[in-house]
């Protein structure tokens, strides 16, 4: 009997259907020579310190660092998990072959290998590697199963991540708790602590910022506002002198340049880019977007969610016309692509930019009933996929230069000639502000009167992090980068992985190191104290942590070894322990402060009007998630979005 194991019951059901394993048993499906079972995500993990070594039970500085010679793993203690593991173990014992159908990525590989190790697997193991759960993809995957050994380096990279997080987290959490906690647990993590440091640093920049005035010299000629080449002028007296020098003068056009340009569509989504857009457009948290995308993947509507590339492989090209034909419900603009062959742009198709999985895209399956969250996320993925095959946006750009007295001025205008892909993505993709305007007709040498003036402005502090901007900062190790190509290059040193960044933000919120204040993420007093107390750059520097991530990717590519990674990390943890133990400042970090004005739910878009009786809320936007509608049930008012996690409920009046 061939035993297949998926990461979740819903995925196992999809695989069993394709394989003809239609008989439901206790904990698995059976039929046609297959048994298809499942895990519940992580069934096993690295054991707690006291289970690694009984002497490590007490939280004492003298016991640190704790560096296991071997990292013992075990089954988690929950009854349902132990029961399912027992079923899997029995199936494995009688199997002639096992097919690892875990999620096709680093974490999925670790989950499945841990189970196999504890179950004592001895039979041959094959690996199913697919990017979507459509029947076609599953059939194709089973027709081309891989040897599990092909993914040994992927597993080693996952082990390095898992063991490294344990080694650093367990030691440094105990270290800082015992030394500075004052009775409170202080959580330290390889990714969460530098992420917190970025938020604290931004908050400090804002609080320390002192606004200062500046002036710009402008003049209006033929209804167009020209700006002086002087730019920002910080000396008011100088600004006034410049204004006086051009008053009463004649304005002359010295140069008019017109040229056509084009703007290519944005690239396909990876997970982080989608999370950023969902946060900006809908207020979704990174975690909400990931869970929604995972649900769409399990409903076979989108491809594998935990991806960090924005490219497709060339073999996908031939499938694209068929997928596009299924998306007419998303937009009728799809029909405009039908008469001609699809563009095969290197910004879309590039085999060298794809490792485990290609960019997010729809599968072409027909969408059934979707939640409001799923509809919004699915539409974004589909529209982005459609847009990359649409023609560029063509515009005419005009640059006009002029003089008044001895001052030079300039104005820029931009006129859309053919909207191209912007017909689909619309104003959301157009953020050119003042540049995106039509100018009057100017001719070189023309002159006339003008109206000069000074515009007084104040410098502004940097903006607080939102989930969108924080995700982008994590992706580029704290560097602010707008250019897509450069941002893609910096991913190699980003902190965390696309699938883990959402969980990191949620962990910081749970620990009360940060809070949500509307859409902003703001550090608490405890979060700031913790970062102030940590002196070692390795724990708080996004760039340093990003270098660790790079080493993990190198392990996956067989350019670095697991043993060397753990050896280096062990030396670093030992050094940190020695330095903190020697601290004589006597610092104690207090309990987390709570921002009472913080939004209680990341999806909230409208204020919670507590004073309104329940009846008046009927058919209005839910006051908690801001997405669903309030309806009346038998005993209470409830949110129609409850199936997607909204827990709003109010007793009947």
SSE topology sketch:
Layout: E1 2-6, H1 9-19, E2 23-25, E3 28-31, E4 34-38, E5 44-46, H2 49-52, E6 73-75, H3 79-93, E7 97-101, H4 106-119, E8 125-127, H5 135-143, E9 146-147, H6 152-180, H7 192-208, E10 213-221, E11 224-228, H8 236-246, E12 251-263, H9 271-282, H10 286-298, H11 320-325, H12 372-387, E13 393-404, E14 407-418, H13 422-425, E15 447-448, E16 451-458, E17 465-466, H14 467-475, H15 484-490, H16 498-510, E18 514-517, E19 520-523, H17 525-533, H18 537-540, H19 542-556, H20 562-581, E20 630-632, E21 636-639, E22 649-651
Helix pairs in contact: 3-4, 4-6, 6-19, 6-20, 9-10, 9-14, 10-12, 10-16, 14-16
Structure overview:
Helix content is 36%, strand content 17%. The chain is α+β, with helices and mostly antiparallel strands. It has a seven-stranded mixed beta sheet, with helices on both faces. A seven-stranded antiparallel beta sheet has the order 15-12-13-14-11-10-16, with helices on one face. The chain has a three-stranded antiparallel beta sheet with strand order 17-19-18. Helix 4 (106-119) packs across helix 6, helix 9 (271-282) packs across helix 10 (286-298) and helix 9 packs antiparallel against helix 14. The N and C termini lie far apart (60 Å).
């Amino acid at each position: 009997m061939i035993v297949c194991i998926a990461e979740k019951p819903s995925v196992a059901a999809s695989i069993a259907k394709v394989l003809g394993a239609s008989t439901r048993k206790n904990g698995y499906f059976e039929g046609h020579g297959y048994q298809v079972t499942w895990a519940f995500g992580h069934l096993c993990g690295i054991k707690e310190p006291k289970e690694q070594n009984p002497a490590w039970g007490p939280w004492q500085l003298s016991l640190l660092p704790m560096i296991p010679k071997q990292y013992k793993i075990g089954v988690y203690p929950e009854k349902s998990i132990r029961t399912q593991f027992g079923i899997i173990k029995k199936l494995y014992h009688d199997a002639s072959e096992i097919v690892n159908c875990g999620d096709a990525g680093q974490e999925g590989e670790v989950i499945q290998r841990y189970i196999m190790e504890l179950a004592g697997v001895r039979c041959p193991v094959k690996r199913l590697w697919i990017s979507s759960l459509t029947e076609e993809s599953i059939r194709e995957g089973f027709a081309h199963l891989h040897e599990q050994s092909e993914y040994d380096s992927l597993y080693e990279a996952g082990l390095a991540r898992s063991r490294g997080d344990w080694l650093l987290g367990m030691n440094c959490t105990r270290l800082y708790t015992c030394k500075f906690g004052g009775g409170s647990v202080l959580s330290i993590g390889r990714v969460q602590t530098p992420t917190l440091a970025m938020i604290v640093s931004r908050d400090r920049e804002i609080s320390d910022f002192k606004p200062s005035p500046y002036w710009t010299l402008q003049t209006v000629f033929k209804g167009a506002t020209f700006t002086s080449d002087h730019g920002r002028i910080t000396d008011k007296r100088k600004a006034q002198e410049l204004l006086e020098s051009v008053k009463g003068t004649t304005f002359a056009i010295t140069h008019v340049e017109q040229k056509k340009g084009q703007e290519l569509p944005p690239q396909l989504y990876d997970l982080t880019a989608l999370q950023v857009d969902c946060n900006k457009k809908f207020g979704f948290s990174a975690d909400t977007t990931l869970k929604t995308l995972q649900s769409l993947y399990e409903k076979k509507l989108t491809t594998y969610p935990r991806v960090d590339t924005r490219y497709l492989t060339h073999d996908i090209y031939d499938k694209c016309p068929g997928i596009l034909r299924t998306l007419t419900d998303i937009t009728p603009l799809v029909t405009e692509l039908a008469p001609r062959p699809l563009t095969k742009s290197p910004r879309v198709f590039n085999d060298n930019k794809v490792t485990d999985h290609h960019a997010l895209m729809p599968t072409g399956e027909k969408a059934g009933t979707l939640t409001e969250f799923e509809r919004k996320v699915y539409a974004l993925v589909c529209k982005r996929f459609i847009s990359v095959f649409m023609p560029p946006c063509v515009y005419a750009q005009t640059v006009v230069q002029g003089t008044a007295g001895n001052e030079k001025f300039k104005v820029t205008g931009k006129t859309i000639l053919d909207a191209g892909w912007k017909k689909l993505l619309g104003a959301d993709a157009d953020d050119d502000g003042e540049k995106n305007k039509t100018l009057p007709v100017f001719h070189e040498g023309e002159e006339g009167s003008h109206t000069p003036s000074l515009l007084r402005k104040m410098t502004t502090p940097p903006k607080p992090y939102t989930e969108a901007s924080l995700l982008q900062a994590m992706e580029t190790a704290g560097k602010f980068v707008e250019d897509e190509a450069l941002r893609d290059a910096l991913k190699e040193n980003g902190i965390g992985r696309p699938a883990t960044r959402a969980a990191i933000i949620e962990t910081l919120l749970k620990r009360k190191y940060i809070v949500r204040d509307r859409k902003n993420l703001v550090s608490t007093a405890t979060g700031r104290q913790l970062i102030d107390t940590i002196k070692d750059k390795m724990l708080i520097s996004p760039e340093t942590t990003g270098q660790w991530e790079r080493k993990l990717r190198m392990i996956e590519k067989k350019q670095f070894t697991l043993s060397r990674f753990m050896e280096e990390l062990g030396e670093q943890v030992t050094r940190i322990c020695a330095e903190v133990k020697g601290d004589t400042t006597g610092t104690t970090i207090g309990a987390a402060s709570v921002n009472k004005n913080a939004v209680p739910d990341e999806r909230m878009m409208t204020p919670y009007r507590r004073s309104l009786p329940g009846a008046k809320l009927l058919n209005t936007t839910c006051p908690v998630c801001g997405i669903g509608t309030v309806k009346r049930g038998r005993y209470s008012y409830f949110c129609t979005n409850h199936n997607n996690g909204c827990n709003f409920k109010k007793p009947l009046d």
